[in-house]
Amino acid sequence: MLMKLLWFTYRKKYHFIDKPIEGQCIAVTWHSELLISPQVYKKLRPKQKTAAIISQHHDGEFIAKVFSFLNILPLRGSSRKGAKAVLMSAIKSLKEGYSLMITPDGPKGPRYSMSDGAVALALRANLPIMIVNYQTDNFWQLKSWDKFVIPKPFSTLNIYHQCITLSNMSKEEAKKYLQKQMLTHAL
Question: DSSP 3-state assignment of 16?
Fold first, then answer.
């Protein structure tokens, strides 16, 4: 509820670098931006069925409950724990028409690192990637590995939306390209 309450206090300025995606996609954001990005995604795509990969760590339980509140199906697991099971759940969700949300640097970093998950799934399913970032100059920043950002109430959020495709790239090329694009508007 606090997350939703904060969301309503923010002044939002949307910057569409590309035309919004219709249909399925892989949506990515940095771990430090998880307070805002899921709400942006649901604002832009309210009717799209969506699942999100969330770690099995105890912090992941809290995030899973928040995502359920936002009508986002939590898929529990990460590259470090439960990788095979969550990969199978993600593939099944994609086959069922869900879009998929992933934090490439989660669950434990390092900050702004790029794991294989988002790229591998986008290449396998031949889906576009939707990048959501935001910037604000009035925020609290936690002393966690990801330097988690909490915009202060009544702040202005500059929200950036970009769509890219990774087709005809190798996995390593795609990872470097995606990381570069995600860093363009990172806080």
Answer: strand
Report the C-alpha gap between 106 and 78 in whole angstroms.
8
The helix (H) or strand (E) run that includes residue 37 is helix 37-44
Dihedral angle at the C-alpha atoms of 165, 169, 170, 175, nearest 10 degrees?
Answer: -40
Q: Classify residue 129 by burial, with Cβ atoms within 10 Å: 0-12, 13-18, 19+.
A: buried
pLDDT in tens, the chain (187 residues): 788 899 999 999 999 998 888 899 999 999 999 999 999 999 999 999 999 998 877 777 788 888 888 899 999 876 666 678 888 899 999 999 999 999 999 788 899 999 999 999 999 999 999 999 999 989 999 999 999 999 999 999 999 999 999 999 999 999 999 999 999 999 8
Cβ–Cβ under 8 Å, residues 35 and 149:
yes
Between CA 133 and CA 151 the distance in angstroms is 13
Q: What is the pTM of this model?
A: 0.92
Contacts 24+ apart (CB under 8 A), 69-76: 69/4, 70/38, 70/39, 70/42, 71/42, 72/38, 72/42, 72/101, 73/49, 73/98, 75/51
